[in-house]
Amino acid sequence: MSDPAELLAAYLDFYRDAVLRKLEGLSPPQLRTSVLPSGWTPLELLKHLAHVERRWLCWGFAGEPVREPWGDDGPDGRWHVADGESAEEVTAFFLEQCRRSREIVAVARLSDVASGSGRFTPPAVRPTLGRILFHLLQEYARHVGQLDVARELIDGSVGE
């Protein structure tokens, strides 16, 4: 791939898939139990990443109105998945946000500047799509690494 836009999109899809692979095979209790001092669970991380997609691309770049763009963090400020939300619902939310993000990216250029509505209202600096996609790659790389550690602590799996 020599086109930077294709390269960024492909790497994002790689990391999106990596997140889902790291969650495969975990039981419902394992998805909802933290093994780290910070307290987040694997399912909470997946929901957080769905909100990251929404916040940066739907709300931030495209300027679409988004309900709860920061997610529904609990009173302690942590990522939150309600007791009544199933892993399938959170996964469907994540996949839908990724689908919508791909649509937004497909019709834009890396040099396009984020909308002046939504997240980046003046006087905020409006980043380009390229800057946003690079940020998303950084976010995913960090969280996939965190999931590596969590998965190893949960069941010894490494490098999946």
TrEMBL record:
Query: What superkingdom does the record give?
Result: Bacteria
- Family annotation (InterPro entries): DinB/YfiT-like, MST-like
**One Pfam family from the UniProt entry?**
MST
Q: What is this protein called?
A: DinB family protein
Origin organism is Actinoallomurus liliacearum
